Amino acid sequence: MTEETKQDVVEERQWIQHHNFLMLKKLLVIAVVMFGFGYALIPIYKQICEITGVNILTPKDISADAVVNSQVDKSRLVTVEFDANTQGPWRFRPTVSSLQVHPGEMAQVIYEVVNKQSYKMDAQAIPSYAPQQAAPFFKKMECFCFKQQTLEANEARQMPVSFFIDPALPKEVKTITLSYTFFEVGLKAETKPGT
Protein backbone atom coordinates (compact mmCIF):
# COMPACT_ATOMS: atom_id res chain seq x y z
CA MET A 1 0.00 0.00 0.00
CA THR A 2 1.44 3.33 -1.01
CA GLU A 3 1.73 6.35 1.21
CA GLU A 4 -0.95 8.14 -0.85
CA THR A 5 -3.37 5.19 -0.47
CA LYS A 6 -2.78 5.14 3.30
CA GLN A 7 -3.52 8.85 3.43
CA ASP A 8 -6.78 8.30 1.46
CA VAL A 9 -7.85 5.53 3.85
CA VAL A 10 -7.15 7.73 6.89
CA GLU A 11 -9.09 10.64 5.36
CA GLU A 12 -12.00 8.35 4.49
CA ARG A 13 -12.12 7.02 8.08
CA GLN A 14 -12.01 10.58 9.44
CA TRP A 15 -14.80 11.57 7.04
CA ILE A 16 -16.91 8.56 8.17
CA GLN A 17 -16.24 9.31 11.86
CA HIS A 18 -17.19 12.97 11.35
CA HIS A 19 -20.46 12.03 9.63
CA ASN A 20 -21.23 9.37 12.25
CA PHE A 21 -20.72 12.01 14.94
CA LEU A 22 -23.05 14.41 13.11
CA MET A 23 -25.68 11.65 12.79
CA LEU A 24 -25.36 10.89 16.52
CA LYS A 25 -25.93 14.57 17.35
CA LYS A 26 -29.01 14.68 15.09
CA LEU A 27 -30.43 11.52 16.67
CA LEU A 28 -29.87 12.91 20.17
CA VAL A 29 -31.69 16.13 19.22
CA ILE A 30 -34.58 14.07 17.80
CA ALA A 31 -34.75 11.97 20.99
CA VAL A 32 -34.80 15.10 23.19
CA VAL A 33 -37.52 16.70 21.02
CA MET A 34 -39.61 13.49 21.14
CA PHE A 35 -39.27 13.31 24.93
CA GLY A 36 -40.26 16.98 25.23
CA PHE A 37 -43.24 16.47 22.95
CA GLY A 38 -44.38 13.43 24.95
CA TYR A 39 -44.04 15.41 28.17
CA ALA A 40 -46.02 18.32 26.71
CA LEU A 41 -48.87 16.12 25.41
CA ILE A 42 -50.78 16.10 28.70
CA PRO A 43 -51.21 19.88 29.02
CA ILE A 44 -51.76 20.17 25.26
CA TYR A 45 -54.50 17.50 25.45
CA LYS A 46 -56.15 19.30 28.38
CA GLN A 47 -56.13 22.60 26.49
CA ILE A 48 -57.61 21.00 23.37
CA CYS A 49 -60.34 19.36 25.47
CA GLU A 50 -61.16 22.67 27.16
CA ILE A 51 -61.32 24.50 23.83
CA THR A 52 -63.47 21.84 22.15
CA GLY A 53 -65.56 21.08 25.26
CA VAL A 54 -64.98 17.33 24.92
CA ASN A 55 -63.92 14.89 27.63
CA ILE A 56 -63.44 17.43 30.37
CA LEU A 57 -62.91 16.22 33.92
CA THR A 58 -64.82 18.82 35.84
CA PRO A 59 -65.30 19.45 39.52
CA LYS A 60 -68.80 19.74 40.95
CA ASP A 61 -70.67 22.16 38.70
CA ILE A 62 -72.65 24.06 41.30
CA SER A 63 -73.54 24.16 44.97
CA ALA A 64 -76.88 23.16 46.44
CA ASP A 65 -77.52 26.78 47.53
CA ALA A 66 -77.52 27.94 43.92
CA VAL A 67 -80.27 25.45 43.02
CA VAL A 68 -82.61 26.75 45.70
CA ASN A 69 -82.46 30.21 44.11
CA SER A 70 -82.94 29.05 40.51
CA GLN A 71 -86.20 29.64 38.66
CA VAL A 72 -87.97 26.83 36.82
CA ASP A 73 -88.97 27.81 33.29
CA LYS A 74 -92.28 25.97 32.86
CA SER A 75 -92.82 27.51 29.42
CA ARG A 76 -90.46 25.11 27.67
CA LEU A 77 -89.09 21.57 27.78
CA VAL A 78 -85.59 20.40 26.95
CA THR A 79 -84.97 16.78 25.96
CA VAL A 80 -81.83 15.36 27.56
CA GLU A 81 -80.49 12.25 25.83
CA PHE A 82 -78.09 9.92 27.65
CA ASP A 83 -75.28 7.95 26.05
CA ALA A 84 -72.58 5.62 27.37
CA ASN A 85 -69.29 4.45 25.87
CA THR A 86 -66.74 2.13 27.40
CA GLN A 87 -63.01 1.72 27.07
CA GLY A 88 -62.37 -1.53 28.86
CA PRO A 89 -64.05 -4.64 30.24
CA TRP A 90 -67.27 -3.01 31.41
CA ARG A 91 -70.96 -3.09 30.80
CA PHE A 92 -71.99 0.55 31.14
CA ARG A 93 -75.31 2.17 30.26
CA PRO A 94 -77.96 4.65 31.39
CA THR A 95 -81.21 3.20 32.75
CA VAL A 96 -83.20 5.57 30.48
CA SER A 97 -82.29 6.86 27.04
CA SER A 98 -83.79 10.34 27.53
CA LEU A 99 -85.74 12.67 29.84
CA GLN A 100 -87.71 15.83 29.25
CA VAL A 101 -87.03 18.55 31.81
CA HIS A 102 -87.99 22.17 32.33
CA PRO A 103 -84.95 24.47 32.57
CA GLY A 104 -84.20 25.05 36.26
CA GLU A 105 -85.91 21.79 37.34
CA MET A 106 -83.84 19.19 39.21
CA ALA A 107 -83.64 15.79 37.53
CA GLN A 108 -81.79 12.54 38.08
CA VAL A 109 -80.70 9.66 35.90
CA ILE A 110 -79.03 6.41 36.92
CA TYR A 111 -76.13 4.79 35.07
CA GLU A 112 -75.38 1.11 35.61
CA VAL A 113 -71.90 -0.33 35.43
CA VAL A 114 -70.68 -3.91 35.75
CA ASN A 115 -67.03 -4.92 36.07
CA LYS A 116 -66.91 -8.10 33.99
CA GLN A 117 -63.40 -9.04 35.15
CA SER A 118 -62.39 -11.35 37.98
CA TYR A 119 -60.27 -8.66 39.65
CA LYS A 120 -60.73 -5.19 41.13
CA MET A 121 -60.44 -2.23 38.76
CA ASP A 122 -60.34 1.57 39.03
CA ALA A 123 -62.21 3.58 36.41
CA GLN A 124 -63.11 7.14 35.53
CA ALA A 125 -66.05 8.57 33.61
CA ILE A 126 -65.51 11.56 31.34
CA PRO A 127 -68.58 13.59 30.30
CA SER A 128 -69.10 15.35 27.00
CA TYR A 129 -72.05 17.36 25.72
CA ALA A 130 -73.73 18.01 22.41
CA PRO A 131 -74.28 20.62 21.22
CA GLN A 132 -71.13 22.17 22.65
CA GLN A 133 -72.86 25.45 23.41
CA ALA A 134 -75.06 23.63 25.94
CA ALA A 135 -72.14 22.49 28.14
CA PRO A 136 -72.00 25.60 30.37
CA PHE A 137 -75.76 25.35 31.00
CA PHE A 138 -75.75 21.68 32.09
CA LYS A 139 -75.25 21.83 35.87
CA LYS A 140 -74.45 18.60 37.70
CA MET A 141 -75.04 18.49 41.46
CA GLU A 142 -74.04 14.87 41.95
CA CYS A 143 -72.13 12.73 39.49
CA PHE A 144 -70.02 9.60 39.52
CA CYS A 145 -67.71 11.48 37.13
CA PHE A 146 -66.45 13.73 39.94
CA LYS A 147 -64.08 11.01 41.16
CA GLN A 148 -62.59 7.67 40.20
CA GLN A 149 -64.69 4.60 40.85
CA THR A 150 -63.30 1.34 42.26
CA LEU A 151 -65.23 -1.77 41.31
CA GLU A 152 -64.58 -5.16 42.83
CA ALA A 153 -64.44 -8.29 40.68
CA ASN A 154 -67.80 -8.81 38.93
CA GLU A 155 -69.37 -5.94 40.92
CA ALA A 156 -72.45 -4.19 39.56
CA ARG A 157 -73.30 -0.67 40.68
CA GLN A 158 -75.93 1.97 40.01
CA MET A 159 -74.56 5.50 39.93
CA PRO A 160 -76.74 8.65 39.93
CA VAL A 161 -76.32 11.91 38.08
CA SER A 162 -78.36 14.78 39.58
CA PHE A 163 -78.56 17.83 37.37
CA PHE A 164 -80.56 20.78 36.13
CA ILE A 165 -80.47 22.85 32.98
CA ASP A 166 -79.73 26.52 33.56
CA PRO A 167 -82.78 28.60 32.50
CA ALA A 168 -80.35 30.87 30.60
CA LEU A 169 -79.94 28.07 28.03
CA PRO A 170 -80.53 29.59 24.57
CA LYS A 171 -84.10 28.96 23.45
CA GLU A 172 -83.02 27.36 20.15
CA VAL A 173 -81.41 24.46 22.06
CA LYS A 174 -84.18 21.90 22.49
CA THR A 175 -82.08 18.73 22.88
CA ILE A 176 -78.88 18.10 24.85
CA THR A 177 -76.92 14.86 24.73
CA LEU A 178 -74.92 13.90 27.80
CA SER A 179 -72.39 11.24 26.88
CA TYR A 180 -69.99 9.46 29.24
CA THR A 181 -66.92 7.48 28.34
CA PHE A 182 -66.01 5.04 31.12
CA PHE A 183 -62.43 3.73 31.05
CA GLU A 184 -59.95 1.94 33.29
CA VAL A 185 -57.29 4.03 35.01
CA GLY A 186 -54.25 3.21 37.12
CA LEU A 187 -53.64 -0.23 35.66
CA LYS A 188 -52.15 -2.30 38.47
CA ALA A 189 -50.55 -5.42 37.08
CA GLU A 190 -50.05 -6.87 40.57
CA THR A 191 -53.83 -7.07 41.13
CA LYS A 192 -54.46 -9.13 38.02
CA PRO A 193 -54.36 -12.91 38.14
CA GLY A 194 -51.24 -14.64 36.85
CA THR A 195 -48.87 -11.71 37.41
From TrEMBL:
<dbReference type="GO" id="GO:0005507">
    <property type="term" value="F:copper ion binding"/>
</dbReference>
<feature type="transmembrane region" description="Helical">
    <location>
        <begin position="27"/>
        <end position="45"/>
    </location>
</feature>
<keyword id="KW-0735">Signal-anchor</keyword>
<comment type="similarity">
    <text>Belongs to the COX11/CtaG family.</text>
</comment>
<keyword id="KW-0812">Transmembrane</keyword>
<dbReference type="InterPro" id="IPR023471">
    <property type="entry name" value="CtaG/Cox11_dom_sf"/>
</dbReference>
<comment type="function">
    <text>Exerts its effect at some terminal stage of cytochrome c oxidase synthesis, probably by being involved in the insertion of the copper B into subunit I.</text>
</comment>
<dbReference type="InterPro" id="IPR007533">
    <property type="entry name" value="Cyt_c_oxidase_assmbl_CtaG"/>
</dbReference>
<dbReference type="GO" id="GO:0005886">
    <property type="term" value="C:plasma membrane"/>
</dbReference>
<keyword id="KW-1133">Transmembrane helix</keyword>
<keyword id="KW-0186">Copper</keyword>
<keyword id="KW-0472">Membrane</keyword>
<protein>
    <recommendedName>
        <fullName>Cytochrome c oxidase assembly protein CtaG</fullName>
    </recommendedName>
</protein>
<dbReference type="Pfam" id="PF04442">
    <property type="entry name" value="CtaG_Cox11"/>
</dbReference>
